[in-house]
Amino acid sequence: MKxxxxxAVASLCCVALYSCASIDNAEHYATTGEKLYAENCxxxxxxxxxxxxxxxxxxxxxxxGGKIMPSFEESLSEAxxxxxxxxxxxxx
Length: 92
Hints:
Elements: H1 2-25, H2 32-40, H3 42-45, H4 55-64, H5 78-90
Helix pairs in contact: 2-5, 4-5
């Protein structure tokens, strides 16, 4: 019984890791903004269509962070900020 449970847990972990890896490595993104959104935003925000704030607010939040959101000032370039914003705005 212990072996069966261990095997089941290991299998689920492998499936989870495989699905994450395939998302990161997939070349199915239509734009760089979509890929950057998937890599940096999707984990918390899921659908970009729910981000209905003005462009300036989105830029400021990406750059400086929010209440619990980290700042991307150091990890993303200004061009990458803009690509994410463009992607979000096109989803509306």
